[in-house]
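pinned: reference chain
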Amino acid sequence: MSRLGEKIKVLRMEGGLSQKQLGKKLGVSESFINEVELGRKVINQNLIDRIGKVLGKDLNDLTLSFEEQAYKEEKENKFSYEPKKEKVSEVWNEAFGSVLKNVPIYKYDLNKAVGSKQLPLVGNKIEGYAQDKVFYVEIQDDDMIGFRITKGDLAFAHIIHEVENNSICLIEYGNERKIRQVKKLDSNKVLLISNPNSVRAETIELRDMKVIARLDKLEIIL
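pinned: its structure tokens
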């Protein structure tokens, strides 16, 4: 049913007229009025004016108001969309949650995380390493200040078990954990290098040292 046809039906019924009676006053058949009210028949302006006169209502004003309202609703739906902030936030959080992972921050003992930082997950890896093999180490002293590694800095690290020559690692030696540059001398001996104020080197047996992780990147605290 069209808006015009619906309004004609309402006004006709309010006026106590049947479709047959309205048709007789207009010189058209009952079925014609029925088709108009159902929106199946398009009528010209002359007939609209005549119906309005019989029903005592200016249908031109009514049709105009209907068209304006329809246009307004369509415009509002099309151009005045305001996304719900909460919904947008949830979508973005979910999206970023699928590509960002919390990487724990530890002190040298690795007993309990003291914080975390988010890093992107690419191909199910973080910086090219398995997710469960990476963490941040909070530098606890200035033993490596000559390497520009100072207390309070954060170093991104990944777990290793074999010595990688010239790498800077978190090691366990003499019941202590330290950050040192490790140089292989042969299959049995390594050189541990630190630089608190000047370069210091210590030669030890490989079997006396445990390699925990290699430091890959450093975030300097300014």
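why pinned: Confidence is low (pLDDT under 50) at residues 63-71. The two ends are 73 Å apart (CA to CA).
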